[in-house]
C-alpha cells in the first residue's frame, strides 16, 4: 500500500466515515426529496473553513479549494475505497508516482505523491480526472488533468 506511514486503522476509519456520509446523503433522498447534493454541498470552498462546519481544513489544505469526499463524483469515491484496499486498479498507471511537474501541489520530494485514475463515463481513454495522494495522508482531486486541484476533505 502506498500509505506505509499512515496506520491502516486510520485509513479504514476515514473511508468508513466517507461511506457513512454518502449513505446518509442517499437516505435523505429516499424521503421524496432530491438525492442530488445542494449547490452549497458540492461547491468548492476556497476559504479557511468548510460551510456548515466549525472545523478548519487541515494545514496541508489551507489556501486551496476544497471538496468534501461525499461531494465527489461516485467514480472518485470508488477510487478512494480501492486506494484503501490497495487495489485492484483499472489502469496500469494507477498507484504510480505523480511528478507534480505542474507545481500546483505543495513541493515535496520525488515519490511523495501517487496518482489514481478516476473513470470518466463515456471516455475511451483515462480521461482527465485523477486522485493524487500524498504520503502524509493527503488526498487531492483534479478533473482537468492536473491544471487545478481541490483538497479532498474526508
Automatic annotation (TrEMBL):
Concerning InterPro entries, the annotation shows:
N1-like (IPR000026), Ribonuclease/ribotoxin (IPR016191)
Species lineage? Bacteria, Bacillati, Actinomycetota, Actinomycetes, Kitasatosporales
Kindly provide the name given to this protein in its UniProt entry. Answer: Guanine-specific ribonuclease N1 and T1
Its domain of life reads Bacteria
Q: Recall the GO molecular function terms of this protein's record.
A: hydrolase activity; RNA binding; RNA endonuclease activity
Kindly give the SUPFAM superfamilies that the UniProt entry links to this protein.
Microbial ribonucleases
| Signal peptide limits | 1-27
**What Pfam families does this protein's entry cite?**
Ribonuclease
Amino acid at each position: 500500500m502506498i500509505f506505509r506511514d499512515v496506520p491502516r486503522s486510520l485509513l479504514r476509519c476515514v473511508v468508513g466515515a466517507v461511506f457513512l456520509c454518502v449513505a446518509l446523503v442517499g437516505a435523505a433522498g429516499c424521503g421524496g426529496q432530491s438525492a442530488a447534493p445542494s449547490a452549497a454541498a458540492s461547491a468548492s470552498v476556497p476559504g479557511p473553513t468548510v460551510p456548515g462546519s466549525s472545523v478548519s481544513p487541515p494545514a496541508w489544505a489551507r489556501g486551496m479549494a476544497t471538496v468534501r469526499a461525499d461531494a465527489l463524483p461516485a467514480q472518485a469515491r470508488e477510487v478512494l475505497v480501492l486506494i484503501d484496499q490497495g487495489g485492484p486498479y483499472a489502469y496500469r498507471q494507477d498507484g504510480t508516482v505523480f511528478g507534480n511537474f505542474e507545481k500546483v501541489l505543495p513541493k515535496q520530494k520525488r515519490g511523495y505523491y501517487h496518482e489514481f485514475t478516476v473513470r470518466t463515463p463515456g471516455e475511451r481513454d483515462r480521461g482527465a480526472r485523477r486522485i493524487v495522494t500524498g504520503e502524509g495522508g493527503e488526498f487531492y482531486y483534479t478533473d482537468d488533468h492536473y491544471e487545478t486541484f481541490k483538497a479532498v476533505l474526508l
